[in-house]
């Protein structure tokens, strides 16, 4: 700051404005890198550091430092004497008197405390607005729900530990901006994952359209040579799987459809696990240092560990209800079409059996959150 004042003859106010401009430019630069999740954390850290630094040194310490520049000729100052690049021991006697006796004059007392606070509050509002915008854009590109939850926890922990430095932006407003950004993104991911159940519907329709009677539902004999040749090592997993397929009549079409469903179910179970993880998170350490004017520790804990997970839990329930309703309609519509044939067609019977087996396997492997919601008739 002193170097900038010397180089440009800037007053204390000008120095602070320049410092704010440099830090704001750095916040913008950090936010422009969309493929590095750590940079958004660095952006918040930089904002917090700027607020803390300014509240510590502006205006009193900065004014004293600028005033000290005028106390003696610049070349006599210890900071200049120790600069090895200048080699003053050798060169100073060759410098002109105007250089050796130069004493800078800068305005050091033009920034009262109230104006310093006003400038910092204005900067804080702009910086946090930029941060919230960059956060929304950055996490909008993140497709992994686990990464979203980890980043949410990291940023919330960072802000809760330093919220007393909010300066004009409002600690709750900053917190709420972070919460809203992550809640909206997680809701979008829930919608994406639940609607992917349509892949199972597509699999059913494709298999029915391309059904080849006598082949699509074909099963090799229970004790076929290929079955007997299966490796019995590692607990006989391969043999157990084959026996399981026969016991539950999982033909290739059923297996194909159920595999698509199982892949989808893994994503839903992960979402449910992450929501539970959010509910179980304790914010004790971060909420110990509370200011009187802040929300109470209990209120903040409720928002982060109850309100937010509850919102996401309800969103997941609603989206699962919609997705399963669509799948149920697909299966039932095909079943009605097959029943209208009065069972006169052998292929129709095979297709009907296929639908029943798919229905059975899905109904016995529902997401727990949906099974709890539809306790009487889950599917």
Characterise the protein shown here.
The N and C termini lie far apart (68 Å). The protein is built from 18 helices and no strands. Helix 2 runs antiparallel to helix 3 (37-57), helix 8 (113-139) runs parallel beside helix 10 (171-195) and helix 16 packs antiparallel against helix 17. By secondary structure, the protein is mainly α. It has helices spanning 2-8, 12-31, 37-57, 60-68, 78-81, 88-91, 97-100, 113-139, 145-162, 171-195, 198-209, 225-228, 237-247, 252-280, 284-287, 297-339, 346-363, 368-373. It is 70% helix and 0% strand.
Blueprint of the fold:
Blueprint: H1 2-8, H2 12-31, H3 37-57, H4 60-68, H5 78-81, H6 88-91, H7 97-100, H8 113-139, H9 145-162, H10 171-195, H11 198-209, H12 225-228, H13 237-247, H14 252-280, H15 284-287, H16 297-339, H17 346-363, H18 368-373
Helix pairs in contact: 2-3, 2-8, 3-8, 3-9, 8-10, 9-10, 10-16, 11-14, 11-16, 14-16, 14-17, 16-17
């Amino acid at each position: 700051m002193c170097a900038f004042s010397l180089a440009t003859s800037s007053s204390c106010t000008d120095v602070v404005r320049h410092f704010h401009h440099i830090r704001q430019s750095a916040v913008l630069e950090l936010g422009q890198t969309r493929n590095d999740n750590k940079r958004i954390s660095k952006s918040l850290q930089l904002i917090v550091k700027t607020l803390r630094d300014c509240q510590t040194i502006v205006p009193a310490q900065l004014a004293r430092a600028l005033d000290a520049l005028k106390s003696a000729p610049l070349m006599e100052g210890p900071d200049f004497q120790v600069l090895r690049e200048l080699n003053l021991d050798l060169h100073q006697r060759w410098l002109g008197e105007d250089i050796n006796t130069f004493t800078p004059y800068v305005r050091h007392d033009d920034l009262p405390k109230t104006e310093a606070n006003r400038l910092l509050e204005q900067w804080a509002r702009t910086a946090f607005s930029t941060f919230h915008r960059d956060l929304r854009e950055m996490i909008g590109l993140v497709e992994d729900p686990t990464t979203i939850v980890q980043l949410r926890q990291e940023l919330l922990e960072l802000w809760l530990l330093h919220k007393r430095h909010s300066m004009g932006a409002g600690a709750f407003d900053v917190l709420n901006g972070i919460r809203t950004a992550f809640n909206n993104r997680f809701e979008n991911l829930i919608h994406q994952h639940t609607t992917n159940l349509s892949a199972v519907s597509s699999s059913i329709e494709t298999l029915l359209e391309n059904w080849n009677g006598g082949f699509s539902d074909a099963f090799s004999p229970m004790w076929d040579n290929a079955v007997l040749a299966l490796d019995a090592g590692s607990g006989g997993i391969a043999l157990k799987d084959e026996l399981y397929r026969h016991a539950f009549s999982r033909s290739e079409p059923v297996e194909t459809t159920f595999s698509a469903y199982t892949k989808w179910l893994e994503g839903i179970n992960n979402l449910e696990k992450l929501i539970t993880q959010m509910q179980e998170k304790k914010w004790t350490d971060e909420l110990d240092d509370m200011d009187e004017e802040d929300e109470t520790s209990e209120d903040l804990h409720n928002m982060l560990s109850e309100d937010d997970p509850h919102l996401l839990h309800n969103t997941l329930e609603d989206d699962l209800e919609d997705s399963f309703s669509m799948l149920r309609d697909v299966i039932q519509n095909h079943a009605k079409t097959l029943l209208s044939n009065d069972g006169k067609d052998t292929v129709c019977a095979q297709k009907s059996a296929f639908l029943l087996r798919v229905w059975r396997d899905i109904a016995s492997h529902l997401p727990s959150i949906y099974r709890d919601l539809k306790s009487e008739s889950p599917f």
